[in-house]
Amino acid sequence: MKDLFGKAILDYQTNNSPEDLITETSISEADEMSVAYLFRGYAEMPKMEQKTLNLAKGKVLDVGCGAGSHALYLQNERNLDVTAIDISANAVKACELRGVKKALVQNVMELENETFDTILLMMNGAGMCGKLNKISGFLQKLKSLLNENGQILLDSSDIIYMFDEDEDGGKWIPSDNDYYGEVIFNVSYKGEKEEPFDWMYIDYNTLQNAAYANGLQCELLLEGEHFDYLAKLTHA
User: Fold this and answer.
1) Nearest to 152, CA basis, from 116, 110, 120, 111
2) Domains held by the chain: number
3) What's residue 190's pLDDT?
4) Which residue in 49, 72, 95, 215 could disulfide with 45, CB within 3.0 to 4.6 Å?
5) Residue 60: CB partners within 8 Å, gap ≥ 6?
6) What CATH number does the domain containing 38 carry?
7) pTM
8) Structure confidence at residue 172 (pLDDT)
9) Quick count: other Cβ atoms within 10 Å of Cβ 59?
10) For residue 59, what are the contacts with CB-CB under 8 A and spacing of at least 6?
């Protein structure tokens, strides 16, 4: 990986002529994303993110922390013990420059010997497992990092609305998709292209079924206006 997402974050943090990121998926056209959005403060965050941050408690793990905006708020405004992790070395460097006290280059699937009261998977963070057939291993790993009375807070979207309907109201979903929420992501930055990677938007019912199958309770906390939702997973 060229870590273009992280480069954009670090460029913005260090005033190194940041440009917009270009994102494209297997089911959507190229779209420009302002890196500044990743540096938003609490007041600029969507209600769903604000609610998530208000629900965070105890020792917190922010998975896929990006520019560290959520970790910074929890650390500075809520005085919580936050560990921010990302596989992007550039993003973690930006987090450190912004003042995140504990920011680590770390894949959550390889994190050992530590447990948390709150695990955050924000901005469709559950999608990092990539494919639905990997969700059990992903949830089992998160469960192993969770304290007895801990919580996993995650948001995602049901992207069924992006597919065309036939005359009977059914959806046309490409037959090469194992699950309609699976997409291939492409990211470009400053003329460079990242290696394509798998990502997944998981609808609530599918998440709930996967949670129950892996010994976790699943609760719907909030539904957004754009087929998005916030869920809480806890030990069953």
Assistant:
1) 120
2) 1
3) 97
4) 49
5) 71, 74, 80, 81, 82, 83, 116, 117, 118, 119, 120
6) 3.40.50.150
7) 0.94
8) 62
9) 17
10) 80, 81, 83, 115, 116, 117, 118, 147
